[in-house]
Design a protein that fits this description.
Strand content: under 5%
Number of domains: 1
Helix content: over 70%
Number of helices: 22
Largest sheet: none
Radius of gyration: 21 Å
Structural class: mainly alpha
CATH topology: Growth Hormone, Chain: A
Distance between the termini: 21 Å
């Protein structure tokens, strides 16, 4: 059993205030550049003469490009440098994000979204590897959860900004202006991030030793007696189960994210800024859900139920929103707002699982594969919503499908070995 390890408060304080904020801002920018088309989509459909199905395909094609660097990204970050790899990708995705603002046809938009996906693809596994180098197992759900607050935070920050830009200019200006954000953050990322504690000059040698010894002791527990081939690790049933669960989670989550502004616009007839404000509220609740669920997961030292239960509730809220739609628009909106915390709140404990189950040498690649397969849900979710809306003229059937996907993800997590997700973690002392 892993010994209880208590790190000095100063170490906790410095790591949380340096590594997490830098990663948070970096991926907030990535998520803005990935998702700001959700606000622009109604105007883009009109200007680029796309059907809803074509729009869903163009938005979602990002994720076919995104999967290409998932396994290589985790491998490169673990063996070379997460800091350097992300720096290269910041430049690459900034170029592609700005390029999305210069398109004048549906085909050009489709192509630029694909290239944006390729250039962002290695960032997620690289950042997970980076956090695993800095935070012990008992802290990892919170570390992941606080970093992944970037997802709702990007909507909270960018939706009003995007609505304001659209009200004064157009979607071309929106995508170009927000696409330039990565270039502004590159210098700060290079200054604040170090790959490993021994490389950091901002903590004392004794503090570096404390962090390193804790992580080294944990890694030794996960290492097999004889090294396990990478392909054998990637073929483990646990990897496949997590991949499928994440695929269903992403299908529900990205279908929700990309089409929600269009739903609000069609139902409320509000302007761009009004739609942006309606869009923000579910993500404010999502941010609160991420903090509460991640903290409780670390304190209870449990992962599986902290993923399965919120997902089940989110799926049920989708169905409740559809049912309430015929009775009360306000009640339906309330249920839609409650979907978000279930989807986003599970990300911290979910992504803590690979680092607690797989050997350190292959954790990055395992997380890359899970994210690669899972992220394809980001293609199929928006595509299904667009197709259903085109065929039926409303979003009711689409939301039922998204709800079923979340319920399926919840059910799969219940099949994950209990012992693997209630690891013998040291008690949380925060």
């Amino acid at each position: 059993m892993l010994e209880s390890v208590s790190m000095p408060d100063c170490i906790r304080h410095e790591r949380w205030l340096r590594i997490i904020p830098a990663a948070f801002v970096m991926y907030t920018i990535a998520y803005i550049d990935r998702t700001n088309v959700s606000m622009a989509l109604p105007a883009m459909i009109r200007d680029l003469r796309m059907t809803p199905s074509q729009a869903g395909d163009a938005v979602g094609i990002f994720f076919w490009g995104y999967l290409l660097l998932q396994i290589p990204g985790g491998y490169v970050a673990e063996r070379w440098s997460a800091k350097r790899f992300v720096s290269v990708l910041l430049v690459a995705w900034g170029i592609c994000a700005v390029g999305c603002g210069f398109v004048h046809s549906a085909r050009q938009f489709w192509t630029m979204r694909l290239l944006l996906g390729v250039s962002e693809g290695g960032v997620w596994p690289a950042t997970l590897v980076l956090l695993a180098h800095w935070f012990a197992r008992a802290e990892r759900a919170r570390a992941n959860g606080y970093w992944m607050l970037c997802q709702p935070a990007s909507v909270i920050f960018a939706a009003p900004l995007s609505g304001w830009i659209l009200a004064h200019w157009d979607w071309h200006v929106l995508l170009i202006a927000e696409g330039a954000f990565p270039f502004a953050w590159l210098a700060a990322w290079w200054r604040f991030i170090d790959d490993h504690p021994p490389e950091a000059r901002w903590i004392s040698p004794r503090e570096r030793d404390e962090v390193e010894s804790t992580l080294r002791r944990e890694a030794a527990e996960l290492e097999p007696v004889s090294p396990e081939p990478l392909l054998r690790t990637l073929a483990r049933p646990q990897v496949m189960l997590l991949s499928l669960a994440y695929f269903l989670l992403s299908s529900g989550g990205y279908g929700y994210l990309f089409w929600l502004p269009s739903v609000f616009k069609s139902v409320s007839k509000a302007g761009d800024l009004g739609v942006a404000l309606l869009f923000v509220i579910p993500y404010l609740l999502s941010g609160a859900g991420m903090v509460l669920i991640s903290r409780h997961s670390d304190r209870s030292r449990e992962r599986r139920i902290h993923v399965a239960l919120p997902l089940a509730l989110a799926g049920l809220f989708f169905f409740a929103a559809v049912y309430a739609g015929g009775q009360s628009a306000l009640a339906s909106y309330a249920f839609i707002c409650l979907v978000g915390p279930g989807i986003y709140g599970v990300l911290g404990p979910f992504w803590a699982i690979p680092g607690e189950v797989f050997p350190r040498a292959v954790t990055g690649s395992a997380m890359g594969l899970i994210n690669a397969i899972g992220a394809l849900g980001g293609y199929f979710g928006p595509l299904v919503v667009g197709y259903c809306e085109q065929q039926t003229g409303n979003f009711q059937y689409a939301f039922c499908i998204l709800g079923a996907a979340l319920l399926g993800s919840s059910a799969l997590m219940l099949f994950f070995p209990r012992s693997a997700t209630r690891a013998e973690l040291p008690p949380d002392r925060s």
